[in-house]
Specification:
This protein is mostly helical and about 325 residues long. It has helices at about 5-30, 35-40, 45-55, 60-75, 90-125, 130-145, 150-160, 180-215, 220-225, 230-240, 245-250, 250-270, 275-285, 285-315. Helix content is about 75%, strand content about 0%.
């Protein structure tokens, strides 16, 4: 069994384990959707019992689990039931209606952080101790160690409240016309993407720099210097490219980090993606929404990890013959 086959089997096990955790973890929190809804509207006990029956919360847990697994394994896309909070809207409809906004933030911030890391990595790889390296290292440490919500609040305070360059909340304004709508969506996405890019850059650059220190001591870098190649050519073609293997192998982890940051960022900016939906699901104990959201997030993370493994076999031929 080769490397990719083992990774695919591992991914299947991870998805199955995640399905079980998606069912168990939300139910560990005290209260349920019917009780929380009743507490907000002061419904009588009989109404709470009727809501529990409508949502299926009065059934034994093992019955709920059996129905949960049956609906997932016998439908495609998996059927997670109907949202308690937005009843009777199916969970998949809710998730897919917000998935595009979350994918926009994650994908753009991922490629921007990778591009920024490669650019600064190529500049600083052969210029040890210079101002560029000091600024890059210290800024990456600051962005990596600062909580995402704090960076988001700073950007909101400066660029949305004081300067009023960008909108404060939401993902788009209700305007007519394709071009005005796209421009509005772009303006709303700038600050969330900037927050996620800065946080991810701090992490990726530190990984790249640690690997680059080892690559700089390699024989082929010494030979490149002896041939009189320019610093930029050595830094980018020899150091940065050969330092990307750890980043590629950690692609699933980086996507998981982006998603965790995305949940915080969407909550701060009221962005209206899956992260915002998850927060609402947690507050309202909306089990189907949480189960569906966590499932599709798991697919994104596992898919990203598999993509990273595939790219790793292309970059490192030694893994192909395992």
């Amino acid at each position: 069994m080769n490397f990719l086959s083992r990774r695919v089997l591992t991914s299947i096990v991870v998805v199955f384990a995640a399905l079980n955790l998606d069912f168990i973890i939300p139910r560990l929190a005290p209260g349920n959707a019917a009780e929380i809804l009743a507490s907000g509207t002061k419904l009588p006990a009989q109404a709470v019992a009727l809501l529990s029956a409508r949502f299926g919360l009065n059934q034994p847990v093992w019955v709920q689990y059996a129905l949960y697994m049956q609906n997932i394994l016998t439908h495609w896309p998996p059927f997670f039931g109907y949202s308690f909070q937005f009843y009777p809207t199916p969970v998949s409809e809710l998730v897919f209606s917000r998935l595009e906004w979350t994918l926009l933030l994650i994908s753009v911030s991922f490629f921007l952080s990778i591009g920024l890391t490669n650019l600064l990595g190529g500049i600083t790889a052969t210029r040890r101790g210079g101002k560029a390296e000091s600024i890059s290292v210290y800024s990456s440490i600051i962005f990596f160690s600062t909580p995402a919500f704090w960076i988001a609040l700073i950007l909101v305070s400066v660029f949305a409240v004081n300067l009023r360059w960008f909108p404060l909340i939401g993902n788009a304004d209700p305007v007519s016309g394709t071009v005005p709508y796209l421009l509005s969506a772009l303006k709303h996405a700038v600050l969330p993407i900037a927050t996620m890019t800065l946080v991810t850059f701090g992490q990726i650059f530190l990984i790249l720099r640690g690997t680059a220190q080892e690559v700089l001591r390699s024989d082929y870098v010494t030979a490149a210097k002896a041939r009189g190649l320019k610093d930029w050519t050595i830094g980018y073609d020899y150091v940065v490219k050969n330092s990307l293997l750890p980043i590629v192998s950690l692609m699933g982890y980086l996507i998981a980090t982006l998603i965790s940051v995305d949940i915080i960022v969407e909550f701060v900016f009221g962005y209206g993606g899956i992260g915002d939906l998850i927060v609402d699901g947690i507050l309202n104990r909306d089990y189907p929404v949480l189960e569906g959201s966590f499932f599709y997030i798991t697919i994104l993370v596992v898919g990203g990890a598999l993509l990273g493994d595939f790219l790793l076999t292309r970059l490192d031929p030694r893994l192909r013959g395992d």
